[in-house]
Amino acid sequence: MTAHPLFDIGGRTALVTGSGRGIGLALARGLAEAGCTVVLNGRDAARLDEVAAALPGDVHTAVFDVTDGASVAAGIADVEERVGPLDILVNNAGMQLRAPLLEFTDSDWHRILDTNLTSAFLVGREAARRMTRRGHGKIINICSLQSEVVRPGIAPYAATKGALKMLTKGMCADWGPHGVQVNGLGPGYIETELTRPLVEDEEFSAWVRRRTPAGRWGRTEDLVGGLLFLASAAADFIGGQVLYVDGGMTSVL
Ligand code: NDP
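Above: inputs. Below: predicted complex with NDP.
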């Protein structure tokens, strides 16, 4: 049996920000395995080269800081010149800072906003300038279950992810009429470097398993199916939505 042609994204070119490790790396691998030309991004050139060499297919690297407008503009222009027109952009780069709000510093506030929210605006805008001109493109913003719910100690992170959900809808409103489709993918608790302190906290880790209807932490590979779907023609009439891949956690009290 073969997959339905609506799901075939072979031959497209995709950029995944923050793809040297964790969720971004799993998503980049999924896109490469689906036959896309993939561009990895991050700030560590050596790491990206190592990862690129281990992935199947046509894989390139683009080293730029997603929080810096000038670097983003130069980075996207360079990717399109070296690799070709981007069909798919995955805004994945992000960070977490855990601290009670009263102890949260001004500089940390700006850092997490820049990394999790401004980055999607900067990279999305550069990519969409080109995609809207060509009349097609898919942008997928990596949101979070914390786009919907929050716990003590992560208010700034949740604020960035909640705003990213609305930015996703706004991008859809502005760019949808020009053929660029924008959606979000909202991971639940996934084991990566970002969540390592939580995984290592046995009490918290057990709470996640209890609270998740699926009864376990998510794996980075759990996110691949949702991404490939949103990037494919099967999702062509879906816009401005966030698909939560969280084992059901966001849906239950
Ligand atoms: P990791 O910390 O494992 O990876 C984050 C990636 O982002 C790294 O590859 C890092 O690359 C990159 N990055 C960070 N800052 C920048 C920057 N300024 N410019 C370019 N790249 C940058 O995190 P995860 O894989 O866990 O998270 C990926 C995304 O998924 C994030 O947006 C996160 O908020 C979201 N998410 C994660 C969840 C989880 O449970 N893990 C749950 C919900 C959402 P480098 O530092 O090498 O440049």
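The first strand starts at residue 13 and ends at 16.
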